[in-house]
Amino acid sequence: MQSIKSRRKVAPEGPGEGVDSADKQEQLLLSSAIYNGEDLSPFIRKAFSSGKPETLLHHLRHFARSKESEIEEVCKAHYQDFILAVDDLRSLLSDVDSLKSSLSLSNSHLQSVAQPLLSSLDSFIETRNVSDNVLLCLHFVKICLQIMDLCSRANTHLKSDNLYLALKCADKIEKGFLKITPSVTLKRMLEKQIPAIRAYVEKKTNKEVGDWLVEIRIVSRNLGQLAIGQASSARQREEELRMKQRQAEEQSRLNLRDCVYALEEEDDGVDLSGSAIDRSRDGFSNGDGNLGFDLRPLYRAYHIHQTLGIQDRFKQYYFENRKLQLTSDFQVSSMTPFLESHQTFFAQISGFFIVEDRVLRTGGGLTSKWEVENLWEMAVSKMCSVLEDQFSRMQTANHLLLIKDYVSLLGVSLRRYGYPVNALLDVLSKHRDKYHELLLSDCRRQISDALAADKFEQMLMKKEYEYSMNVLAFQLQMSDIIPAFPYVAPFSSTVPDCCRIVRSFIEDSVSFMSYGGQLDFYDIVKKYLNRLLSEVLDEALVKLINSSVHGVSQAMLVAANMSVLERACEFFFKHAAQLSGVPLRMAERGMRQFPLKNARDAAEEMLAGMLKVKIDGFLSLIDNINWMADEPLQGGNEYVNEVIIFLETLVSTAQQILPVQVLRRIIKDILSHISEMIVGALVSESVKRFNVNAIMGIDADIRLLESFAEDLASVLSDAEASQLKSALAESRQLINLLLSNNPENFLNAVIREKSYNALNYRKVVIVSEKLRNPSDRSFFTARGAKQNPKKKSLDALIKRLKEAS
């Protein structure tokens, strides 16, 4: 086919020569606008405005005629192309006719050849359809058999209570076979029975969980008792270890090297970790152990609910029921005293949270940490409330201590599982003062009973165990040598009885303060121990001394008791320090003054008072002194000999009972009293005057007393014997002044401070005037002789002292 020639643009012919130049120009512009496709409206508007539309029409017709030749040429070219195309089409139609004849011939030949094959193909297709139907039927039968097998297995598992396996069978049927079940009847049955199986499984597991919840309450109580018992055993082993350590420290302190190895003993077969509880921490208890702690029913039910897809509902069910159980456990029976029921109360709560800790750690998300913490906070709040209420009602220290110990063991056992117990310990600390007040009250009654039973007799010990129990146990011995038995102790039975009461107080106080969250509590124990000694024991002893002591022997024994109790007080503070875990050197450094000082002073004052009464009986013989004796007595006056005999007898007797320091204080007080009585006799109005011979006799008396004091150096030290002599200072200085050649030296401040510091001005004046009595002029001056310078000095002394007064 020939290609179509492109159209040729024919240029417009120019206007006729007859047209004027203006028209020619306008025609060219119009032709150019048409060629360029511009808008012709300006030309039309111009033509009508000028009133010459015929000219515009003429120009347009001229342009159209100029295009006719171009159109003619284009049509001529297109006509040639059309003729060529028609020729080609006619040639193609002849070729098509020949091809159609060839195809018809081939088709006839193919039909004759393929007819048998088509018959065979139809037979094959029919046979294959039958085969497919048979195979599909067999497949459906196989599915039904599998379904029936799963149903049979599910029934078997249900009968044998293998609920999880039955549920898995139902799930497998639902997910794998329900949609492809060929039998409508079977499908309807499955759609009905699968939900029924699930409902039955859920109901069955909920019943098992309900039974488990009932059983776990009993198990929890036993479990809590076991855990608290193990904590108690561990505490006891710890106390034994501390005791061995204290013994080793004490022995090391005393350089007893043969006993240093006591701490290396081991407890064979003791499981310090504790517990049958920990042996099953990371898994399930087998249900037949000592604990009987089996979580399998709970976990099985949780697993089944997870399989059912309703684990959140089961979690809520479990949490609510456990919360109700805990609330029920909080009930305190008003019919049973709390002292009898407190162990069951706290053991039940302890076991509850031990179970919850196990469920939290091994339950696979059955409970959350937040839920357990909420339950624990609720339990702590309730336990604190119960303790506050019960402690406020208790009036017996021992009852409060028993409950405190059990609560502290509860805290120890649950702290191992990560539960915070500070709130419980704070409640115990809050009632510390009340406990000690009750304890002080009990000790006050016991001490009163012990003192009331005292017979004021020295304690007789026939056996060594009695000595160990009453003396060594409180470190009352004066020597490490065991005495021969029977042994008569230098104290009465009151001393060990009171020591046992105080020791029991210390141990109870330490027991209450121990394991209460406060590590350093020695200062608190010491504070209450001081109160016991200074407020209770001291007051009771003072009361006993003032009301029940009669006779020197009883007073002496009470004074001896006080000296022994002074040694016992050192033991008390050391014992408190040891039990509190404080080194003895720190306890010794912190010891204050003797807390029984009032009772000791009262006992010694009473003994001294009774002895002074005896002494006063002998000193009454002073009235028999010849104050105007013609010559001095060399052997002393009668009264002083009686006094010295009494004092020597007293010392020999008191040495058997009283410690040296107490004896020194008593003798010093007596000698001071004797000195006062001698000076009092010289000052008294019953003695009007006396001479130097009488004064020399008194000097001999004082020398005898000083000699007695010096003889006590074998019992006391030289310094202490010198102190005893100082008790006679007033009488000695007064006699020395009267016998002095220059009595006026008393006015010299230096000499007075050195030699006469114990004298009173008024007494010196009174005694000096009695010695200066003019009726006794023969001593100071002979008839017709000069005035004696001693008398002159004495007169000057009296005059100056009177002026000063």
UniProtKB/TrEMBL annotation:
Record flagged with keyword Cytoplasm: yes
Keyword Calcium in record: no
The Exocyst complex subunit EXOC6/Sec15 C-terminal domain, residue ranges: 424-770
Domain Exocyst complex component EXOC6/Sec15 N-terminal: 59-228
GO cellular component, one term: cytosol
Source species, domain of life: Eukaryota
GO biological process, one term: vesicle tethering involved in exocytosis
Short name of any one Pfam family annotated for the protein: EXOC6_Sec15_N
Gene3D superfamilies: Dsl1p vesicle tethering complex, Tip20p subunit, domain D (1.20.58.670), Exocyst complex subunit Sec15 C-terminal domain, N-terminal subdomain (1.10.357.30)
Keyword field: Cytoplasm, Exocytosis, Transport
Cellular location(s): Cytoplasm, Cytosol
Location of the region described as Disordered in the Swiss-Prot/TrEMBL record: 1-23
Known function: Component of the exocyst complex involved in the docking of exocytic vesicles with fusion sites on the plasma membrane during regulated or polarized secretion. Involved in polarized cell growth and organ morphogenesis. During cytokinesis, involved in cell plate initiation, cell plate maturation and formation of new primary cell wall.
Entry's family note: Belongs to the SEC15 family.
This protein's name: Exocyst complex component
